[in-house]
Amino acid sequence: MNIIISNSTGQPIYDQIAAQIKNQILSKELEAGTALPSMRLLAKELKVSVITTKRAYEELEKEGLIESYTGKGSFVRIQNEQQLREQHLHEIRTKLQQAIELAALAHIGPAELRAMLESLQEEE
Fold first, then answer.
1. pLDDT of amino acid 88
2. What is the distance between the alpha carbons of residues 43 and 113, in angstroms, rounded to a whole number?
3. So what's the pLDDT on residue 95?
4. Close Cβ partners of 116 (under 8 Å, ≥ 6 residues apart)
5. Where is the HTH gntR-type domain (predicted)?
6. Is the N or C terminus of the chain more exposed, i.e. has fewer CB atoms within 10 Å?
7. How far is the first Cα of the chain from the last one, in angstroms, to the nearest whole number?
């Protein structure tokens, strides 16, 4: 599992870890049933506190993306297509809201923002 921690984003480390694991689950890079590294091992690899990795895993459990069993570890939870779609829609809405807020700061109107989105979609 590839996780990159940045100290310059201002985003809490547990949130960075949770977000990157979440993206790997939603993109199906991590498939259902895949065992995640133990919290202790992940903390050691990332050179962060076990409390930090524990919090990241707890956030993922709250969102229903992973499940943990005492003594066995944490695993990617089986997702149904509707649940995955809902997760994707939530992510899109969150990121679009961030884009709208940033556009407002830069005095970019809805038409220009829409044109940027359409341009990006055409590039895909």
1. 84
2. 40
3. 92
4. 108
5. 11-79
6. C
7. 26
**pLDDT less than 50: residues of the chain:** none
Q: What is the per-residue pLDDT for 92? A: 92
The dotted CATH code for 13-76 is: 1.10.10.10
Instruction: Give the C-alpha separation, 76 to 95, whole Å.
Output: 24
Q: Which two tokens stand for residue 87?
A: 């997760």
| Cα 77 from Cα 67, distance rounded (Å) | 6
Residues for the chain: how many in total?
124
Residue found under tokens 């076990």 = 50
In angstroms, how far is CA 89 from the centroid of its own chain? 13
3-state secondary structure the chain: CCCCCCCCCCCCHHHHHHHHHHHHHHCCCCCCCCECCCHHHHHHHHCCCHHHHHHHHHHHHHCCCEEEECCCEEEECCCCHHHHHHHHHHHHHHHHHHHHHHHHHCCCCHHHHHHHHHHHHHHC
Q: Tell me what pLDDT residue 116 has.
A: 93
What is the structure's pLDDT at 40?
95
Q: What does the alpha-carbon distance between residue 113 and residue 116 come to, in Å, rounded to a whole number? A: 5
Q: CA-to-CA distance for 11 and 20, rounded, in angstroms?
A: 12
